[in-house]
Specification:
Largest sheet: none
Strand content: under 5%
Number of helices: 4
Radius of gyration: 13 Å
Order of helices and strands: HHHH
Distance between the termini: 27 Å
Helix content: over 70%
Shape: globular
Number of strands: 0
Length: 71
């Protein structure tokens, strides 16, 4: 039963990740799945650090709303 819950949560997270655009999703994946710092993400995607931080902040808010069922 616990494993089923984890699988369900993973599917929901994947669904929610698909609802945000690539420009926001890629920095989130690099930071929270691959473990890069925001500065490393900025170098990797070729955007200024502030832009990356803003994109991550907006993406996390969107993900939170989707996971809470309010989006």
């Amino acid at each position: 039963p616990e494993q089923l819950s984890v699988t369900s949560e993973a599917r929901m997270l994947d669904h929610c990740l698909q609802t945000i655009g690539d420009q926001s999703r890629n920095p989130v994946v690099l930071a929270f799945i691959e473990g890069l710092t925001h500065a490393q993400v900025a170098v990797r995607v070729g955007h200024p650090l502030g832009t990356v931080k803003s994109a991550i902040r907006r993406a996390l808010a969107t993900l939170r709303a989707c996971l809470d069922g309010t989006a």
